[in-house]
Amino acid sequence: MTISSNYKYNGNDDEITAWQRNFTSRIGDGSGDPEEEFLAYVRMMTQLRPASNWLEIGCGLGRMVELLLSGRNSVVGLEPDDHRFNDCRKRFHGQRNIEVLKMTSEDLRRTRPKARFELILNSMVLQHVSTGVCQGILKDIHALLAKEGLAIISTTQNCKELFTFQSSPNHQTREEFDLYAAFPNDQKFGIPVRKFSKDSFLATLESNGLAVLHWGQFSYIRPEKVSWFADQYRVSEDDIRDVGDSQYAIVRRK
To answer: Are 19 and 232 in contact (CB under 8 A)?
Structure first.
């Protein structure tokens, strides 16, 4: 299963920014950038390999592109959504060593079959596509990694896997989720949002030939919000109080 050529990202960025205010960088605290730990690892990887070629799959508006540039690094950003591609390309394409392309990872493999990257970033993308497309992206990451290459992949996290839509509280079946994700022009409830569990995330990586070198979590629910989230996710407060709402893994090819 692939992302269609008419892919459209239906997330409301203002709503997503507001949503982020529910989280913090520390367990039981209410301060700090909720993405602090994940971003620190991205910065560290760029510093450890200052002359590497980076690939970002799903670069969106370019939020991570500047972060990836360090020293002599080059960056290729892929974005299939028209609006987000145009915005990112205007801001970054051609600056220093940045190339922004309107395509998917599958398109890149087809058009540049010899392309390999020392570092690949896939940040908060997998949860917004069908389970089949998710598998395809991970297979592409495996194929596009250089022999000694590393990828850092982040996504959602919950104590149990859930399938949801952005503006609907109802939990969906996997089949309902996949059908909804397959038709972006008909997504009246916003973007699809899959909530991976730690086990389902790691198993999905491993099943696509990616060995996990390090796993971490981030974006902890603010203490005053735990009760509301427990009700939304239909779990106990203890199940989510000390669990990051997002997770990441640093991987290599097996």
So the answer is: no
Cα separation of 154 and 161, whole Å? 15
What pTM value is reported for the model?
A: 0.94
E strand or H helix at 17, and its extent? helix 13-20
Kindly compute the dihedral angle of the four CA atoms of residues 14, 19, 78, 115, in this order, to the nearest 10 degrees: 160
Token pair of 118 as six digits: 């020392």
**Percent helix, strand and coil across the chain, each to the nearest 5:** 40, 25, 35
Residues 6+ apart with CB under 8 A from 124: 58, 154, 155, 156, 246
pLDDT band at 93 (very low <50, low <70, confident <90, very high): confident
Token couple for 125: 């993308």
Q: Which of 206, 201, 50 is nearest to 119 (CA)?
A: 50
